[in-house]
Amino acid sequence: MSSVASWAGRDVLDLGCGSGFHLPRFAASAARVYGVEPHPGLLRMAARRTRPLANVTLLAGTAQEIPLPDASVDVVHARWAYFFGPGCEPGLRELARVVRRGGSAFVIDNDATRSTFGRWFRRGYPAIDADAVERFWSSQGWTRVSLDIDWRFDSRADLESVVRIEFAPEVAAAVLAEHEGTTVDYAVNLWWRGY
Q1: Which residue has the higher pLDDT, 109 or 99?
Q2: What pLDDT does residue 82 have?
Q3: pTM (two decimals)
Q4: For the domain 11-110+128-149+188-194, what is the CATH code?
C-alpha cells in the first residue's frame, strides 16, 4: 500500500477495522486515523488497543454508511471488509464521498483463482465466481496488485481452529484432512483506486 500512496501526515480511514489490529501502524505516521466498525464487540477491542493513541477515533458504522463528512480522508484501507465485489456498489459510492481529491482507497480480499487457500475458498464457496469478482473491480476503475502471503501458525490446533471459523464443518474437515503442517499459502488481491 505505502508504495502506491503514503499515509504519513494524512488522514486515514480503516473501514471495517475489526479489533483495531492495523490502527496503531497507521497512527504511527498518519495525522489522524478513523476506525469504522459495525460490530460493537470488535469496536470495544479496538478501543482497548488504541487507548493510548491520541490521533485515533473509533466510530460505529458500515461501508454503506460511513459516519464521516464528505471529503474527510486521504487514504482508505478495507481489509476483508468487501470480499466479493458485485453488491458492493453502495459502499463504493460512500468511498467516493469521503475520500478527498488526490486520495486513494485500498481493498484487500481473497484471490480465489490461485493458492491452497484459494482452492479451499472455491470449495467452501462454490457460488462465488472468482472471475466475476475480478471483472467487477476492474470495471469499477480499480487496479489489482496480486500478493502471495501465508498463514503461519504456532500449532496445528491453531490452524485447525481458524479453518473451522472460515468454512462450514464438512469443508473444514475435508481440507484439514488433505493438508499437513502449520503453514498455508494464501493469495490475495490488493485493489486500489485514486480519486
Answers
A1: 99
A2: 66
A3: 0.89
A4: 3.40.50.150
pLDDT for the residue numbered 83: 60
Q: How confident is the model at residue 77 (pLDDT cuts 50, 70, 90)?
A: very high
Q: Return the domain boundaries, the chain.
A: 11-110+128-149+188-194
Q: How far apart are CA 132 and CA 97, in angstroms?
A: 25
